[in-house]
Design a protein that fits this description.
Layout: E1 3-4, E2 11-12, H1 15-27, E3 62-63, H2 77-86, H3 95-98, H4 124-135, H5 140-153, H6 165-174, E4 183-190, E5 193-199, H7 202-210, E6 227-228, E7 231-234, H8 241-249, E8 255-263, E9 266-267, E10 275-283, H9 288-291, E11 298-303, H10 311-331, E12 336-340, E13 343-355, H11 358-365, H12 402-410, H13 434-437, H14 442-464, H15 469-482, H16 504-518, H17 535-552, E14 557-558, H18 559-580, H19 591-607, H20 616-631, H21 638-655, H22 683-690, H23 696-714, E15 729-737, E16 743-753, E17 760-761, E18 764-777, E19 787-789, E20 797-799
Organism: Rhizophagus clarus
Protein name: C2H2-type domain-containing protein
Pfam family, one: Plavaka
Length: about 800
């Protein structure tokens, strides 16, 4: 292995000597950064508009590239410092190797390595190495050790691998694919700073999505008037009213291409000092289950984040960026032909929905962001004092429209409807009402919104209406920590102390167990506290929440389902307002509460099931497109570096798409490890020896083992469980009886309903353990359920039915 100084081109055989030299060399070199005057970096797609107003043409539509030459004139001090930093010793695992006096064997570069632009790797070994490095985010130092290990033990006279990982990355950066190219355009200048939009062409993004394997299976091409029992059914987006009306407006024979956008600024570091604003795209024609996977989405671009006191300039920059991204929709007067399922199809692209949190939705709609404004809802003209009113009439909820809002804007009366003094680009787009297209999404409205309020207000209630309120909150924490473990549920060992930092996934875990934590928590109003919320009402609030939340996850809605859902929303909302109105600083004037109560049902009718416009899967894209690429950048002028990393990741995915994972084959139950092994003849002696070293459940299993095994073997022929209809049980122990063939058994203690008259409590089976024990074949167990003990009660249990 050798190390080449990028400044003076001297080559060193040891890293230590190179590092010392580079530090001295760096001080003695002045580096000039030359601007790239290459006139070939022109606009790639002729259909895109030129930049408007006074923007300097020298910035327009430069291709975003990272210069990989070793020419010192094309390197900045920052890039040289970064290169030296990358080569510093970071991982003690390799220190002894790197400090060894033994020199690495140096191979020539692969002879078929083409340093010019290409679309293929020099050979399969080269490709597999770089795909491995990209997929698992292997740093340069570790990657170089892989190369060294391979070269040392391969017994090849010529290595098929690059000299080092830096060379491999440079090769990938030079690979040219027309559908992986990003461009940049100057959107605005402010205080001598240029603000660029980094983006992919909209149509190219769409084509990229359509190249993903199996993405066009069941690709929706027309409106589906789906009915069951004479009721309209809303599921996929093409069953909604928006698709129907938009399709009717298109030329005969053409198809609708539904574009879904997701935009959300996110922090790039743990301190939140730096931000990026990615915007993503997917297609509503793709079935929901497939669309919610990561590869069904594309990064459309990074929007500029303007920091300025002039907020209208910030808003104008945002909408100028959106215009540049979405203008092909306006320019494609005759639509576009796309290759779908082996044939060309004539499409008209249209934006259907925009998925965003509340402040982002206000930016798209250009309405006042403040919840204290007179008309805080971006969808309708409801007054602030009515946000917590659950009984508004249709006349009280007047929807915003493009025509009305534009009229106020042109007449300079925009303040009367609480919209900003900036032209809204979406007024110019066909077939969209931006005020309705920014749909309520479950994660921001419920998980991180209303449920978070519900938890906070619950704690406030416990503290305010009880003398020992803090002890009640501590009891909540204790109960949360005592909840039994179950797949998909986070155990809050520290209670709710870190509620401000909880993620959406953690809030969903809380939803599944809070009803059992609140149940039987405190006594009645013995101190005659005003506006007292009794324990039963508070528990019912969580029951109503769970019922509503489960309904929101339906994959399809009939009109009857929508009525049921609407009733569930209002039942929960009334209880929410009743319980918390007097502890809320704003008297529950929460825009998300109003939006969920009055707009979610119409959104389902217009755009299909809620699962089609949730943000859960989009949030994971931030990790792939922002946070990981940012971590491996030098933290300066990051967008070009991020795009280069994303390009390498896309190449890695493309090159590995054709590899086939072997199908998993089902197998019978097999124990991976054994705690004990004993002869049945000596079972009682063995149990007596081990009983003090096992838990109570296994001790009970030892006591019942022989009698239950005898019963099982006696009833093996035509065996039926004599449980009188019992279906829930707890496994005391698992056993493998080494007969021929072996028997894989579970010793079960059964539950029965606590009350035959009222077998359910809070919608969950209410159980008690009984003295009935059986061995059953492990293969006959249908599934695992979450059993939660009822706190401060003896022998009472719930089956958690809120595992969603």
């Amino acid at each position: 292995m050798s190390f080449k100084c990028p400044l003076c081109m001297r080559i060193f055989s040891q890293r230590f000597a190179y590092t010392q030299h580079a530090q001295k060399c760096l001080k003695n070199v002045e580096v000039e950064v030359e601007e790239d005057d290459d006139n070939n970096d022109s606009e790639k797609y002729s259909s895109e508009m030129d930049t408007r107003s006074n923007l300097s043409s020298e910035y327009e539509n430069d291709k975003v590239e990272v210069n990989d030459d070793n020419d010192v004139q094309n390197m900045s001090f920052d890039s040289i410092g970064s290169a030296i930093s990358e080569m510093s010793l970071e991982d003690s695992n390799f220190e002894n190797i790197l400090d060894s006096s033994e020199e690495s064997e140096i191979f020539e570069e692969p002879k078929n390595l083409n340093t010019k632009t290409c679309t293929e790797f020099p050979n399969d070994a080269y490709k597999d190495l770089m795909l491995l490095v990209t997929k698992y985010k292997i740093n340069n130092k570790s990657g170089n050790e892989i190369i060294r290990f391979f070269n040392k033990h391969s017994n090849l006279t010529e290595s098929p691998l690059p000299k080092n990982i830096e060379q491999g990355r440079a090769f990938m950066n030079n690979m040219k694919f027309s559908n992986l190219e990003f461009s940049k355009v100057l959107i605005t200048k402010h205080e001598d700073k240029d603000y660029f939009l980094y983006y992919q062409n909209l149509i190219q993004c769409i084509k990229n999505i359509l190249t993903v394997p199996d993405i066009t299976q069941n690709f929706a091409l027309s409106y589906e008037n789906y009915k069951y029992n004479r009721e309209s059914i809303y599921s996929e987006q093409n069953t909604g009213k928006w698709w129907k009306t938009t399709q009717e407006s298109l030329p005969t024979g053409s198809k609708l291409l539904s574009i879904i956008l997701y935009s959300d600024a996110t922090t790039t570091d743990t301190l939140g000092k730096s931000q990026l604003h990615p915007i993503y795209i997917t297609l509503g024609n793709i079935p929901i289950w497939r669309r919610n996977k990561q590869d069904a989405k594309q990064l459309l671009g990074y929007l500029p984040i303007l920091e300025a006191a002039n907020k209208d300039l910030v808003r104008d920059t945002f909408h100028k960026s959106l215009r540049h991204l979405l203008e092909p929709i306006i320019l494609l007067k005759d639509g576009i032909d796309l290759f779908i399922n082996n044939e060309n199809t004539w499409f008209y692209p249209r934006v259907s929905t925009i998925i965003a949190d509340w402040p982002e939705a206000a930016s798209f709609c250009l309405v006042y962001k403040s919840s204290n404004s007179n008309l805080p809802c971006h969808s309708c003209l409801v007054k602030r004092e009515n946000l917590a009113n659950i009984d508004l009439s249709v006349n009280d909820v007047i929807l915003r429209t493009h025509d009305e809002m534009r009229k106020h804007f042109e007449n300079d009366t925009q303040r009367s409807v609480c919209i900003e003094s900036v032209h809204n680009f979406f007024w110019d787009l066909p077939n969209i009402n931006i005020y309705l297209a920014t749909v309520p999404n479950r994660m921001h409205h419920l998980d991180l919104g209303l449920f978070r309020y519900q938890i906070i207000f619950t704690c406030d209630i416990l503290k305010s209406q009880h003398v020992n309120g803090n002890k009640l909150v501590e009891e909540v924490d204790r109960r949360l920590a005592a909840i039994s473990r179950f797949p998909g549920i986070k155990i809050f060992s520290n209670g709710l102390q870190s509620i401000a930092r909880l993620t959406a996934s953690e809030y969903r875990s809380l939803m599944k167990v809070m009803i059992f934590v609140i149940d039987n928590l405190y006594d009645e109003n013995n101190n005659e506290v005003d506006n007292f919320v009794n324990n039963d009402d508070l528990t019912k609030l969580y029951e109503y929440w769970n019922e509503m939340y489960i309904l929101s996850r339906y994959e399809e809605f009939s009109e009857s389902d929508l009525k049921k859902f609407n009733d569930a929303i209002h039942r929960w909302a009334r209880m929410f307002v009743k319980a918390f109105k007097f502890v809320s600083p704003s008297n529950l004037k929460l825009p998300k509460l109003h939006s969920w109560v009055y707009h979610i049902i119409d959104s389902i009718r217009s755009y299909g099931a809620i699962n089609g416009y949730t943000t859960e899967t989009y949030e994971s894209l931030h990790k792939y497109f922002v946070k990981i690429p940012y971590r491996i950048s030098n933290k300066k002028d990051v967008e070009p570096q991020l795009l280069q990393t994303i390009k390498c990741q896309a190449i890695s995915i493309r090159m590995s798409q054709h590899s086939v994972n072997p199908a998993k084959t089902s197998r019978t139950c097999k124990f991976s490890a054994r705690l004990f092994e004993f002869s049945l003849q000596d079972a009682n002696t063995f149990f007596n020896e081990k009983k003090d070293s096992v838990d109570n459940k296994m001790q009970t299993g030892f006591v019942r083992f022989i009698s239950c095994l005898d019963s099982y073997l006696d009833l093996l022929d035509g065996f039926t469980i004599i449980d009188k209809g019992l279906c829930y049980g707890q496994a005391l122990l698992l056993a493998e009886v080494l007969t021929d063939p072996p028997l894989n058994l579970a010793l079960i203690q059964w539950y029965d309903f606590k009350s035959k008259r009222n077998p359910y409590l809070y919608g969950c089976p209410h159980l008690k353990l009984i003295e009935l024990y059986n061995f059953v074949a492990i293969e006959s167990i249908h599934g695992v359920v979450h059993i939660v003990p009822r706190f401060d009660k003896q022998n009472e249990y719930f089956v958690n039915k809120y595992i969603f």
